[in-house]
Structures are given as structure tokens and as C-alpha cells.
Amino acid sequence: MRCSPSQASQRKRPLKIATFNINGIRARLPNLLDWLQREQPDVVCLQELKAADSAFPAADFEALGYGSLHHGQASWNGVAILAREAQPLEVRRGLPGLEDDSQSRYLEAAVQGIHIACLYLPNGNPQPGPKFAYKLAWFERLIAHANTLVDNDHPVLLAGDFNVVPTDFDIYNTRSWLKDALLQPESRDCYQRLLAQGWTDAIRHLYPDERVYTFWDYFRQHWQKNAGLRIDHLLLNPALAPQLKNAGVDAWVRNEAHASDHAPVWIELKART
Question: Mind telling me the catalytic residues?
Fold first, then answer.
């Protein structure tokens, strides 16, 4: 079922949009389907599919009432957008200037009257080195493209795994991560430059004084100790930010068997009257 922007503008209930690094869609599909059934988000941005397009389980999502778009890659990366009772309308796959990039990391679609970009920013480790240079170059492309979207009169959302811990307040302890690409000054500077365009970081906007984590490493009992990081973000342009009603993390998903090391992060938008 296709939902046009004009139809979406008439919605009478809050809209829930989530981002979730699934860390292997084939291995975590039962977890993902359970979460979809329990939480019933309206739109979902997925990252790190680790599956070719031919292996994307579109039929499983359709059985739950979700239309889907996917930009896959065998064994690595990959992004997708799901929409409940609607079909996402593709706008772009791949960042401008990186259309020939072999790594599938970016997908844009019109969904429920909102222009949504789903992204999986490069990790960048080990640093320094070519992987970190690729991360920063990719980030620069994202900043340039985001600058063309931020002042749009239409609602725009950037959602995904940014692989950046914005500040020391967004990590349990920096001691073991000081050399990691997620905390490097260059990575953080790119993120702050992105926000400076006018984007609103939903979680930090609503919870300025609360430690919120979205990722817990598999090692050293990080989940059990709540030793987490905040690296999954939802950024709203000025046209969308006034609609922000609530935001949170479905941390219970991280406690399930065979869980991803990330938990879904979501926002809820006000119903239009």
C-alpha cells in the first residue's frame, strides 16, 4: 500500500520512527520480527544487513504489513527502510559523489510524508590509516549533502549508525576507547559541524542531562554492566523538529538471545490535526 505525501499530511496519530543496526539480518531476523510485532514502529531504518539484495527477507516484512527498500552487500554493510502499511518511495541510493562506492551505506526515501535518509557511517578502525581516511571522506560527503537537505521546507530526517560518540557524556568511560575512531577529535568535529547546519539530535534534545546508550560491546560484559556508547542517532531538520514528541531506546532488545550489539532507537512525532 503506497502512502503519498498528501495522504501522510492527514495523519491523525503519532508516528514512530526507529533506527536499528541489526548486525546481520539473516542471523537476527527472529529478533527483528519479534521487535516489530511488539513495538510496531511505523518506519524503520536498518543498518549492517550483511546480506546481498537477493537475500533480503522482504517477504517476512510484508507478512507483518511492512513495505521495504534495501541496498545490500554480501557479508558487509547494507541499509534498508521499512514502512508499516506503506511502500517507501526511493529517492537516492548512495551519497552524491560516491555513487560508485562499493560499500552500501546510504539510502533515501519518502515515507509517510517525511524525507528519510538511512545511513551507516564507516567505523574507521584501525586509526590512523586508510579506513579512518575513508570514514572522514565519507563524513565530508554526508555533511555536504545534508547541507542541501537541512533548509528544506519539507520534513527531513537523518537516521542511522553514525559510528561517532559525540561527547564524553555519551560513553560509560573513555579510558578504553581513547584510540578508537569513534572518539577521535576529527570524527566528533564532523558530527558537530553536521549539527551546526541546524539539525536537532533528538535524544540529546529531549534528554540533555541523561546518559543514554544505544550500543554495548559483546566483550567484557558491557551489557551486563551497562557500559554503553551512544552512536545511533536521529537528526531532524528545522521543518521536522517542532513535531518531536518523544524519543527513547528499546534496550530490552539488547537483552534477548542472539541479540545485536545495538538496540533500536526511536522518535515519536506529534499527530497532525
Answer: 120, 161, 262
Measured over the CA atoms of residue 255, residue 256, residue 261 and residue 265, the dihedral's sign is negative
What is the pLDDT of the chain when averaged over all its residues?
95
Ordered alpha helix ranges (H), 201-265: 202-206
C-alpha count within 13 angstroms, C-beta hemisphere, residue 114: 31
Span 69-82, mean pLDDT?
97
CA-to-CA distance for 168 and 150, rounded, in angstroms? 26
Residue 126 predicted with pLDDT over 70: yes
Question: Which whole-number Å values give the CA distances from 94 to 65, 97, 138, 164, in the listed order?
Answer: 27, 8, 11, 20
**Residue 3: its pLDDT value, please?**
40
Rounded Cα distance between 205 and 146, Å, is 19
Q: What whole-number distance in Å separates Cα of residue 1 and Cα of residue 262?
A: 30
Domain ranges, ordered by start, for the chain: 5-269
Q: Which residues are annotated as a binding site for Mg(2+)?
A: 21, 48, 161, 163, 261-262
What pLDDT, on the 0 to 100 scale, is given for residue 247? 98
d(CA 204, CA 6): 31
What is the rounded CA–CA span in Å between residue 84 and residue 55?
21
Tell me how far apart the terminal alpha carbons of the chain are, to the nearest angstrom.
23
Q: Is pLDDT of 150 > 50?
A: yes
- The CATH fold assigned to 5-269 is Deoxyribonuclease I; Chain A (3.60.10)
**Hey, what's the cell of 216?**
554495548
Q: Give this prediction's pTM.
A: 0.95
Residues making up the annotated binding site are 21, 48, 161, 163, 261-262
